[in-house]
Here is the input.
Amino acid sequence: MLFSWAPHALYTKLPLLVLCLISLLLVSRTSSSSLFSLRISSLGSFSFGKTGKWTYSPRTNKTALVNSEDALIFAGFEGCASSREFYWHLASDKQGQWDRFPVVDSWKWDLENTGCDLRDLETHKEEMVRDLVEKGGWLILGDSITEGHFFSISCSLYPHVIATPDYLENPFFDRAWPQNIYLNPNSFLVQSLKFPPGFNITQTPLITFRRIDLLLSTEELAQFHKTRHSEEDGFVLFSEEAVWSLSPSYYLPEIFFSPLPQGNYAHLIASTAGHWTTTLFSGFANDTKDGIERYGEGIDGLIGFFGEATEMWANTVQEAIENDSEGVVLAGGRRARRQAIVRPYLTGHEDCHDYRQPWTNIEPFKWDWYNWGSIWKFNQVFETLLSGSRYADIHYVAIERPARLRPDAHATSDCLHIMAGAGVLEGWTNYIWHFVTREISGSKPFWLAIGGKGANEDSNK
Ligand SMILES: *[C@@H]1O[C@H](CO)[C@@H](O)[C@H](O)[C@H]1NC(C)=O
Ligand SMILES: *[C@@H]1O[C@H](CO)[C@@H](O)[C@H](O)[C@H]1NC(C)=O
Ligand SMILES: *[C@@H]1O[C@H](CO)[C@@H](O)[C@H](O)[C@H]1NC(C)=O
Ligand SMILES: *[C@@H]1O[C@H](CO)[C@@H](O)[C@H](O)[C@H]1NC(C)=O
Here is the structure.
C-alpha cells in the first residue's frame, strides 16, 4: 500500500462530541444523558445543560396554504429535487390538514448560545454542496424515515442538485430502488468547485439512499441467531411481514467503497430500529403453531438480540473501514479515511394530528403502539456500543430530541413519518453536516493528510 492510516492510539473519540451538538444531545433518558455528561465533562470547557428549544420563526407574511406548492414557500425551499411522493413528503397532500400551515413549517430549533459556529443550512446550502463534492458524499441507509430524510435533503440543496430516479417518468420503481442526488450541471457552483480527480458530475452521486430496514440481511440475521441461541424445532425468526434489507457484505464493497467515478462516499449514515418488532421478528413473539404454544422472549428479548446484531454490524463496518486502504478522494487528490455515523431512530407520536405546535417536554406514551415505547432502548443499545474507543470510525450522533418534541410535524397519513419542511429532517442534515465536516474532520492526527503530491496543501478547509 502506498500509505497507511493514522494509528488508532493517536485518536480519542472525546473531542468529537464538542460544541454545537451538545445541546441537541439531551437524550431523554437519564442514563444516556449521564453517559454524555461524563464524556463531555472530561473536556472541561463546556457548560452542558438541557438547553435547546423550538422557537416560532415564520419566513413569510403569507397566512394560509391555498395550494399544495405553498408548502415550499413556508418551508423555505426553492423546490425539491426528488419527485417521489412529492406532496406527501411535504404533507400538503390532504386539504383537510392544510390548517397546519404555515405554522408547522415556521419553527426553528434554537441552540441557545452553545457558542458554536454552526453554519445554518438554509443560508449556506451552497457550502454543503461544496463539501459533498470536495470532501466526499453520503451513503444513507435506513427505512422509510430515512427515505423522508433523503427527500428533505433534496429540497434543502435545491436547485444545486438533481435527484434520480424520476418517479414521474417511472412511477413503477419500488422502495428497493436506489435513489441518488447528483450535482446539478447547471448550478452556478460548477464553475468554482474543486473536483476530486476522477469525479464525474453525471456519474458520481453526492448522496445515495438505500432502503435497508435492518442494516443486515434477513438471511444473515437468521443464521446469526442460530449461532447465538438454541432454537427449538421448527423455530423461524421472521414472519411474512414485508421488509427490505441488504447485507453489509453487499453495500460496503458495492456502494460505500465503490471507486470514482461510480462513487466517492466519505460518510455512511445509518439508522435502524423501527422494523425491529415482534411482528416481523415473530420468533420473539408468543404464538401457537399446529396446536403447540410457544412463548417467545418478547420485545426485551428482541432488544437483546438487536444488541448482538448491532455489535456484529459495527465489527464488520469498523473492520471494513480499516481494510479500505484507498479512502475517499478529496479535492486536490488527497485521501481521507471514511467514517460511519449512526443516527438514533425516531419514534412516532400517538394522536399526532391533534397537535398544532411543538411540545416543550417529551410526553409519555399512552398506548404503546408498535415498538414506539421501546425505541429509546434500541437507541441506547447503539449509543452504549459506540461510546467507548472500540469503534474509532463509527460515531453515534444523538440528534433525536428536537424531533421528539414535534408531534405536530408528521405526514398527513400517519404518526411516524415526519414531513419535509418542518425543521426536523432539515435539522438532521444540518447537524450531521456540521458533525462530519467540523467535529470529526478537524482533528488532525486522525483526519490525516496522506499521499505525496498535495499532502501539504489544504485546499478545502
Ligand atoms: C411582513 O410584513 C412586514 C410589514 O410589511 C415587513 O416589514 C416584514 O419584513 C414582512 N416579513 C416577512 C417575513 O416577509
Ligand atoms: C462522465 O460520464 C458520462 C456518462 O456517464 C460520459 O459520457 C462522460 O464522458 C464522462 N465524463 C468524463 C469527463 O469522463
Ligand atoms: C408471552 O407469554 C408469557 C408466558 O405466558 C407471558 O408472561 C407474556 O406476557 C406473554 N407476552 C405477550 C407479549 O403476550
Ligand atoms: C478485512 O481484511 C481481512 C484480511 O484480508 C479479511 O479477512 C476480512 O474479511 C476483511 N474484513 C472485512 C469486513 O472486509
